[in-house]
Design a protein that fits this description.
Helix content: 40-55%
CATH architecture of the largest domain: 3-Layer(aba) Sandwich
CATH class of the largest domain: Alpha Beta
Radius of gyration: 30 Å
Number of strands: 8
Distance between the termini: 17 Å
Number of helices: 8
Strand content: 15-25%
Largest sheet: 6 strands, parallel
Length: 264
């Protein structure tokens, strides 16, 4: 199959920013509805970018977990490829789901649903107790026409009742666990990226940023006002809505256009 030809249209010296945490998020979760479907190969990406004579610097930003051999090896790999890499230690910060703004509504709905289940099961359990008494009375009155004996009836009802009560206990424990703090990965490079761009602003006319994160929109807007050309490379489902308001100066490039050159 013939490879579709694609080339960036660059203006003058070009500075490239790769926010690897953002790029990695495009393909790291195969269960995500925005899963890219293929992996970006850092080495192929570097080779492709170096094919442009205009590109003067390629900065690669990523977090490192020193306790994980794979993470440390990746840092060495990126350096060996030739990137100017900027890294820092990943932090794991506690985040209680019920107090974190992003999850408050979700957790509240979940709690309401669990309460409804608990109340429903309680009602069923009460009905089972009533059924137990009725069946016991029928059996003792001699009207049992089934081949199953009295003890079997009683055992069946008790087991059903115990299961329902156990389910209520499990739901309560789940609610308690949801209140426990969980660890959230934190290793943003917004400040470092902004710093490096402004420290080099006199050295480039075009900037390519591999990240669709809308948090960079204000930075991109300012660069455009300063006469710079900005190309944002993004994956479907990973482009901030902030970029929809741009009328000029911004060039959006879906990562799929680069697939033939950078896919692992």
């Amino acid at each position: 199959m013939e490879i579709e030809f694609f080339k960036f249209k660059l203006k003058g010296k070009t500075f490239v920013i790769i926010d690897w945490a953002n790029v990695y998020g495009w393909f790291s979760d195969s269960n995500s509805r925005t899963y890219l479907g293929w992996e970006v190969d850092p080495k192929k990406l570097f080779t492709y970018l170096k094919s442009y004579s205009n590109i003067i610097d390629i900065n690669f930003y990523f977090g490192v977990e020193s306790s994980r051999l794979k993470s440390v090896s990746f840092k060495k790999e990126i350096g060996n490829i030739g990137y100017f890499h900027i890294s820092k230690e990943v932090k794991w910060v506690p985040a209680a789901l019920e107090t974190t703004t992003h999850f408050k509504v979700l957790v509240r709905r979940l709690f309401n649903a669990l309460d409804n289940i608990k109340n429903t099961n309680l009602a069923i359990s009460n009905r089972m107790h009533d059924s137990f008494r009725v069946i016991e009375e029928v059996l003792e009155s001699g009207y049992n026409r089934s081949t199953i004996g009295k003890s079997a009836y009683i055992k069946l009802i008790k087991e059903l009742d115990e299961d329902l009560q156990k389910l209520n206990i499990d739901i309560t424990e789940l609610q308690v666990l949801l209140k426990e703090p969980v660890q959230r990965r934190k290793c943003d490079f917004d400040v470092e990226i902004s710093r490096d761009i402004y420290n080099n602003i006199r050295n480039f006319e075009t900037m390519i940023i591999f990240s669709g994160d809308g948090d960079y929109a204000a930075l991109v807007e300012d660069l455009i006002l300063k006469g710079k050309k900005v190309i944002v490379v993004f994956a479907a489902g990973h482009k901030g809505k902030e970029y929809e308001d741009f009328k000029r100066g911004l060039f959006l490039c879906p990562i799929k256009k680069l697939k033939p050159f950078i896919a692992k």
